[in-house]
UniProtKB/TrEMBL annotation:
<dbReference type="InterPro" id="IPR001608">
    <property type="entry name" value="Ala_racemase_N"/>
</dbReference>
<dbReference type="InterPro" id="IPR029066">
    <property type="entry name" value="PLP-binding_barrel"/>
</dbReference>
<dbReference type="GO" id="GO:0008721">
    <property type="term" value="F:D-serine ammonia-lyase activity"/>
</dbReference>
<dbReference type="GO" id="GO:0036088">
    <property type="term" value="P:D-serine catabolic process"/>
</dbReference>
<dbReference type="Pfam" id="PF01168">
    <property type="entry name" value="Ala_racemase_N"/>
</dbReference>
<protein>
    <submittedName>
        <fullName>DSD1 dehydratase</fullName>
    </submittedName>
</protein>
<feature type="domain" description="Alanine racemase N-terminal">
    <location>
        <begin position="10"/>
        <end position="128"/>
    </location>
</feature>
<dbReference type="InterPro" id="IPR051466">
    <property type="entry name" value="D-amino_acid_metab_enzyme"/>
</dbReference>
Length: 131
C-alpha cells in the first residue's frame, strides 16, 4: 500500500534492493522497477525473467565485465537491457568511482556500444553514508 501511495497509484518508478522485493512488487502490478545492485552473474537468469515480464526492469552496471555479460545474454523479443551506470560515492559499497579513468569509457561503451541490446538510462548514485 505504501508503494502505491508513494507512486501516486501509478505503480511505476520504484527502486528495490533485492530480487525478492522486485518479484513481490511485480506480483502486485508494478511494471517499472529498478534493481539497485550491479547484476551478479548468478542472478542474471532472474533478472532476465523480470526484464522479459515487466514493461521496464532496470539494472545497474559498474564494470566492463558486467556490460559484456549483458551483451552476451541478450533479451528475447526485441527487449533491451535498461541500465544505469552505478557510481561509488566514496563509501566503497558498489559502483565505479567517478574519478576512475575507466568511468567515462564505461559510460561511453554502454551508451554507444549496442543500444539495441543494452541501453543507458542514466547515472545512479546512492550515498549510503547519509543514513
Amino acid at each position: 500500500e505504501g508503494a502505491a501511495l508513494a507512486t501516486g497509484g501509478t505503480r511505476r518508478g520504484i527502486v528495490v534492493s533485492t530480487l525478492a522485493e522486485a518479484r513481490f512488487f511485480a506480483a502486485g502490478g508494478f511494471d517499472d522497477i529498478l534493481y539497485a545492485f550491479p547484476v551478479p552473474r548468478w542472478r542474471l537468469a532472474e533478472c532476465s525473467e523480470l526484464a522479459q515480464r515487466l514493461q521496464e526492469f532496470q539494472v545497474l552496471l559498474d564494470s566492463p565485465q558486467g556490460l559484456e555479460m549483458l551483451l552476451q545474454n541478450p533479451l528475447p523479443g526485441g527487449k533491451r537491457w535498461l541500465v544505469w551506470l552505478k557510481l561509488d560515492c566514496g563509501n566503497g559499497r558498489a559502483g565505479i568511482l567517478p574519478t576512475d579513468p575507466e568511468a567515462l569509457g564505461l559510460a561511453r561503451a554502454i551508451a554507444q556500444g549496442s543500444p539495441e541490446l543494452v541501453t543507458l538510462v542514466g547515472v545512479y548514485a546512492h550515498c549510503g553514508n547519509t543514513y
